[in-house]
Amino acid sequence: MRRAAPPPQPKMAALKHRRTALERVEKFISEVYFTDCNLRGRLFGDRCPAASLSCFQTPRRIPYDEAVRQEFTPAKVGDSFGPTWETCWFKVELSIPPTWAGREVHFVWESDGEGMVWRDAQPVQGLTKEGEKTSYILTSSLKETEPHSMTLYVELACNGLFGAGKGSMIAPPDPDRRFTLTKAELVIFNRDVYELLVDLEILLDMAQLLGEENQRSFQALYTANQMVNVCDVSDPSTFPAARDLAAAIFSQRNGESQHTIHAVGHCHIDSAWLWPYEETIRKCARSWVTVVRLMECNPELTFACSQAQQFEWVRSWYPGLYAQIQDFVAKGRFIPVGGTWVEMDGNLPSGESMVRQFLQGQRFFQEQFGQICSEFWLPDTFGYSAQLPQLMRGCGIRRFLTQKLSWNLVNTFPHHTFFWEGIDGSRVLTHFPPGNSYEMHGRVEEMLKTVKNNKDKGRVNHSAFLFGFGDGGGGPTQKMLDRMKRMSDTDGLPRVQISTPDRLFSVLEKESSQLCTWVGELFLELHNGTYTTQAQIKKGNRECERILHDVEVLSALALARSSTFQYPTSELQRLWRLLLLNQFHDVLPGSCIQLVVEDALRYYAGEQGVWMGEHWVLAGGAPESTLVLNTLPWERTEVISRTGPAGTETLGMSNSCIRISSRGRGGWQRNILPPPEDGSITMENGVIAVCLDSMGRLTSLHLVGSERESVPEGCYANQFALFDDVPLYWDAWDVMDYHLETRKPVTTLLKPLEISLAGGLRGSASFSLQIGKSSTLTQEIILDATCPYLRFLTQVEWKEAHKFLKVEFPLLVRSTNATYEIQFGHLQRPTHWNTSWDWARFEVWAHKWLDLSEHGFGVALLNDCKYGASAHRNVLSLSLLRAPKSPDATADMGHHQFTYAVMPHRGSFQDAGVIQCAYNLNFPLHPVPASSAQCPEAWSSFSVSSPAVVLETVKQAEDSPGAMVVRLYEAHGSTVVAWLRTSLPVQEATLCDLLERPVAGGCLPLEQRGIRLSFTPFRVLSLLLVLRRDATFSHLDNLEERPELKW
Ligand SMILES: [Zn+2]
């Protein structure tokens, strides 16, 4: 008789209590609870301390070769090192126990400083606890043939991923911080446990985040619960069954319409911020070597990497690593993006600087990797100029990625994928990753947010997802990749594919028929204090932009005049790259620590020492006369001063760029009238007339011969005002709307207005004010003969805390819009606060001028180094100085000198020459001592027939020493034909793009009238001019032939 088999035991169904099931799974993988009996507690097996540990410490960042030659002294886990910014090199002897055969062995290093592991003289792994990287994998399965003993070096920087802020991330660095070594050991890593943990984390996230209305949430929960049932943590043979359960649910596929996420590895590294430039070099190496390790183990991993400067740093400091990177670039996996030298500020650099960001960047990428970037990449910058689309297009780029506008404080930007149209009409396809981040971790929550947040649902169904620790570096981790592998196509979650920027944008381009267009600037409604903070950096930037402009112009002309002249090609490249580096989006905006400010000012000082005007004049002869160099493309008649041999200053008048005699031509009309009894002073120069009160304020300003007043009755222009300036968090970055409610006019007079120069070619009057409790301001108000603007040469001793100084010009002008100069053009912004989009722009930026005009009349405000401005109703304000205390406690303290000017004008600002006057203020004439023989009557190289067109740049062509590049732009906002004439022996003229690549069909005929150029509003044109080298060149001959030429 056979006995019947026992009936199968019915499997226990999951109980219906959602909360206990959820928390049960949570506890099973918890790092905090029940680690003695849960799965997490089994992640690591046996441990073994380092066989020996020794170290030596240095204040400098030194190369490996130098470090290993030093004397190392014994160290141990638990020791602390410092202070901040020092470097500790550790020598670590390891010996893996033979009983670990077949096991995965990690070297685990934990410290609050940033570490780099060196092995056999090569950097092999970045270890940064904050970036979730504490393991260097020695072997995935220890074989007998493998070395069991080895020596590693660990280079430990005494700073964290975000520097060393005292008390908060953006506080000034704590100079005395100590950094502790908490782990240095060998461990067995149980990969099967790790894989199960990743499965369970994702299922738990799905269960929680998809919510009770979603059946996938319950599937995930019950699967996870069942996995806990199946797993016996002490018996790894039970793990595969649990993993099968997870695999079964992850492999349930989506429908065709599901959103696709393009995941790209990324590591945003601020080129300097809460740490100095020098540390960034090591951050790049730590982050990128880690990426290379990940790429070796994960053949699908891609990594988008911006900033040519950082590649250049790694190239020169870590050649071995750089060679590995080059291999992965060639494979299309390590992907250079952005095309710029650094991720620069998007508002303040000049048009030419922005061109050079691309020129230096794209040429670097071309030289090093044989390709230029096809996407502009600026995810973390504080607003984007409306001129950028044209500049991108001119540099071979049609695509743009950022996400910073998600930081808007007031208005939510209405798109994630759209066409962005600049002031000239150029358009670029623009994408903001809808998850509003460039440092995702591959979590379920981020995937769901990306889909849900997408503002262009129904228009496009693909989006970017940049994963990896960022800002301070770090980059992707294995865990991020392992998460996303499981989510590649799982019903209920978006499809996730490891992709590339090119693949994403290519798909978006195909889907672009339904996309909307955003016209004009991408203004960030936050961080508006960055137009003003760290005034010396701003001033250094403006000055060096001018110096490089002038040096290039004069060098190019010297080269044209003399074939023996050595154009300073490599020196100019070096200087440009330093200037471009300082335009990084935490340096030029002033949101960096004091160490960075010191570096930046040192770089500027190096550039300020460069001046080659003297070299331009051939040597010889007694300098009894003065040659005046004008680097702008129009004729100028200005008062210039020349310092004589005895140190005495003489004034002279330049006209049409001729030499002046060493004695000033006096006898110009009287500038200043005698003061009446109320202390007021009247100045007049035949063009403008002004009445100043004893505090230097304008009570009247008008054009001579016109009754049209600029200053409203009872108002004062050139009125200083002080505001409380306490933002909500981002101290150096933010000025909040409510600062406007704290306005206090500055009215404490230290020294009343008095005449300092009574007249002749120049008249001036000066006064001093007390600002706040301890700051002082001295101003010289200067009116030059024939000059259409009144200059304010200002000195400030600034000792405030959380105050904001502005100067205001209330004007008798009514307009709903004010005009602001931007790169190669201008734009308008409202003067009212009708809507939230209007009032969110209570503090804006401008370059050399802003203007408020009504029909037939207006007033412009010019400046030589300021960027912050505002126009509310009829008041133009220039933002002068701030006093934030984080991250640089000394920001802006001390002495400042700057100049601004006011210019009333008839007609439009275009017709009145405001643009040219702002250039004149910024590009002073250069009087150079010379002998009479060297001073021609006048010599000019270029002229442009239309006042709407500005010839901005003259330089040697990058690829052809015998050619020159000239760049012009339409500045009025008009469609116009202009003739470019030159006295140089031009043999061939071709239109080129901003990378100086000839445009197909761009050859331009050389006609009797010059070269015909046609412009649409704000169009930037570049020309390659090939010069005849054999030409016998005489400036005087040329001048006689073409008397109208200028320069
Ligand atoms: Zn950044």
Automatic annotation (TrEMBL):
GO terms for molecular function: alpha-mannosidase activity; carbohydrate binding; metal ion binding. Residues 525-604 form the Glycoside hydrolase family 38 central domain. InterPro entries: Ams1-like_N, Gal_mutarotase_sf_dom, GH38_C, Glyco_hydro/deAcase_b/a-brl, Glyco_hydro_38_C, Glyco_hydro_38_cen, Glyco_hydro_38_cen_sf, Glyco_hydro_38_N. It catalyses: Hydrolysis of terminal, non-reducing alpha-D-mannose residues in alpha-D-mannosides. CDD domains: GH38N_AMII_Man2C1. Its EC number is 3.2.1.24. It comes from the Eukaryota. The keyword NAD does not apply. GO terms for biological process: mannose metabolic process; oligosaccharide catabolic process. Signal peptide: none annotated. This is alpha-mannosidase. It comes from Calidris pygmaea (Spoon-billed sandpiper).
